[in-house]
Amino acid sequence: MFNKDSLKIDSKKVTEYLCQNILTQIRNKLKKGGAVVGISGGIDSSVVAALCARALGPKRVLGVMMPEKDSSPDSKLLALELADKFGFEAIEESIYGGLSGLGCYEKRDEAIKSVFPEYDSSWKSKITIPTNILEKDSFNFFTLSIENEKGESKTKRLPLKAYLQIVASTNLKQRLRMTTLYYQAEKRNWAVAGTGNKDEHMQGFFVKYGDGGADLKPIAHLYKVQVFQLAEYLGVPQKIIERTPTTDTYSAEVTQEEFFFGLDFYHMDMLWYAMEHDVPPEEAAKVLDLTKEQVERGYVNIQRKIVATEYLRMAPLEIE
Amino acid sequence: MEKDNLRKEIKDFIIETFLFGDESESLQDSDSFMQTGIIDSTGILEVTGFIEEKYNITIENEEMTPNNLDSVENIVNFIVRKTNG
Fold this sequence. Notes:
Chain A has helices spanning 11-29, 43-56, 73-86, 96-102, 104-115, 160-186, 198-203, 224-234, 238-242, 256-261, 265-276, 281-288, 292-308, 310-313; strands at 35-38, 61-65, 89-92, 124-128, 143-147, 153-157, 191-192. In chain A, 51% of the residues lie in helices and 9% in strands. Chain A has 14 helices and 7 strands. By secondary structure, chain A is of the alpha/beta class. In chain A, strands 3-2-1-7 form a 4-stranded parallel sheet, with helices on both faces. A 3-stranded antiparallel sheet of chain A has the order 4-5-6. Chain A has 2 domains: 11-100 and 166-313, 3-Layer(aba) Sandwich (Rossmann fold); 102-165, no CATH class. Chain A is globular and about 50 Å long. By secondary structure, chain B is mainly α. Chain B has one domain (3-83): Non-ribosomal Peptide Synthetase Peptidyl Carrier Protein, Chain A (Orthogonal Bundle), CATH 1.10.1200.10. Chain B contains 5 helices and no strands. Chain B is globular and about 35 Å long. Classes of the chains: A alpha/beta, B mainly alpha. The A-B interface holds A 130, 136-143, 157-161, 163-164, 304, 307-308 and B 34, 37, 40-42, 44-46, 48-49, 61-62, 64-67, 69.
């Protein structure tokens, strides 16, 4: 029976189950000595690091902070607080030099300038999608916004070429983070633990061979709202739990809702659960205080993202 | 604008761009691009870029809907509506 508590988990039981699996996967299947986790001060990486520390012991966990030009300064402070709380070592590996060398910022700025010729490095930028996806059946198009220090801002829908170049250049960030994590893991003969949750994994909010590149993905089957429940149970610092989830990738702060999902986590996860369990739209609408049409639009939007991003979850195709 | 010509131009673009010119793939004018899987949301950006450039029209954000853009027929009707003001 679908109800407001359908996504409620027994956090103690789930934690025990996850910890057993993390231990078995790392020690027995991967035959590694510990886990390396990229820690951003966000809730997902915090939960994964806390789970690894509990499963393996804090001495077998390394947290890696990877700041670059557009990172929020809060990320480092929160990541350090997390490491302190759970007793594992945290190190900082800046990826700024590497990204500059690869031309990440230059290539991204070139694409932004093709849309806004007045743009220079004194402006901040972000990409967003419509957040009214339950109100209207619309395609997910991307909007580029820039803002300067005087508070002036400009917004335009991105044409394909600029959109692809901005995404390709900013994806260098996730790929360099993955490379950095594997350096730290390989020199210890440890494994890299991925931090994506079900929302990110199944709807394709990750970079293939970037943050999608890991040896194990302990929370890839959990909805974001369930990750919040685990964070409370594990004792993740409250500041991290209350922090608005962002991409920490663009110079202007952009929430995950604005950038990718287009819906708040509660409604998205509940709609998704209802869709997966074949809950009739009328019934889901009653529980969620939505109209039948809004539920139907939500189902379509989520399904569209799952299908469109299938290639991200595919292993390289081989010819038999 | 002549609807039949328009339909052919749109269909040619879709077949060339997304089906690599393979006309043997059956594409009906009313087939939903998304449901048949021919085009995904990134592909829609390619379609809108083509329409804006070729027919010199601006597609507003609120017009980025399946009703306007999700099949050859929908696109043809949309362009006719736009160009007839």
